[in-house]
Amino acid sequence: MVVPEREGLCAVTDAEGGAFSVRPWFTPVAEQLTPVDLKTDVPHSARVYDYFLGGKDNFPADREAAEQTLAIFPDMRTGARENRAFLHRATRKLVGELGLRQFLDIGTGIPTSPNLHEVAQEAAADARIVYADNDPIVLAHARALLTGTRQGRTAYLDADLREPEKILASPELADTLDLGRPFVLSLIAVLHFIPASDDPYGLVRRYTEILPSGSYVALTHATGDFAPEEAERVSAVYQARGITLTPRSRAEVEDFLTGLDLVEPGVVPVHRWHAEKDAGTELADSRVNVYGAIARVP
């Protein structure tokens, strides 16, 4: 049954073309936001990262922490940019070459254009993305995460990576993705903020065990393999400001993907993962210090 469409809405019919409902092209979570305390007097990992990327969604406490980090490791901006570039390349590969159309992105961070849904929907307009993050600063920017193509859908879920049951049982996830079909679990620059005491490996397994065959995991993770002294000092700066940062070795990062099939070239520094026109080969690993990989669920 053909149903007239109104601006900003899409019509959905049942399989027989009978009953239908009208819903927004995107989930209007941002319109329901209530005031939140952004705690601008203390640094926040998402805002510090935003500062490294040259963004404007940060405050003096964030900039002070970032500048202290840059004094120890001047290439922190380089690592942030290369991490972002990995996200873009990995998303294009997952959509364009591997045919994925669904993403669950946990630990979204402040929207920095082009974000995951923009890259995915540029490659395939019908791509669907669910973003999940529990940080108030990200919630405040949810509107930017919820604008996508009319053919696809985007949704935002206020939840923590450490709440797998909440995320996996959420109506936002069920209403946006077909959980019986392959989808991508995106964990970009989030796992190094999960300390050993929170069982990060167990958390990742909880998510990957529900992924249908043919799904993928995309992740990046900070490491101290190439500049161990600097990594230790940077972690101390974060810790002193109440932010746990745990760089992990290549073997430890690989352990997150145990039982999955690593896509070539495996776990490598992000700038060397399918670098465009060999652009990443000129950059020393010690200037980036972030591993990246994607892996397929057999």
CATH superfamily: Vaccinia Virus protein VP39
Radius of gyration equals 19 Å
Oligomer: single chain
Tell me, briefly, the overall form.
globular
Number of helices: 11
Secondary structure elements and pairings:
Elements: E1 9-13, E2 20-24, H1 45-52, H2 60-72, H3 76-97, E3 102-106, H4 116-123, E4 128-133, H5 136-140, H6 142-145, E5 153-158, H7 164-168, H8 171-176, E6 184-188, H9 200-208, E7 216-222, H10 228-240, H11 250-255, E8 261-262, E9 268-269, E10 290-296
Helix pairs in contact: 1-2, 2-10, 3-4
Question: What this model shows, in words?
Answer:
The chain has helices spanning 45-52, 60-72, 76-97, 116-123, 136-140, 142-145, 164-168, 171-176, 200-208, 228-240, 250-255, and strands at residues 9-13, 20-24, 102-106, 128-133, 153-158, 184-188, 216-222, 261-262, 268-269, 290-296. The chain is an alpha/beta fold and 298 residues long. The chain has one domain (76-228, 241-296): Vaccinia Virus protein VP39 (Rossmann fold, 3-Layer(aba) Sandwich), CATH 3.40.50. A hairpin with a 6-residue loop joins strand 1 (9-13) and strand 2 (20-24). The longest helix is centred in the N-terminal third of the chain and has 22 residues, at 76-97. Mean pLDDT is 87; it is low at 1-33.
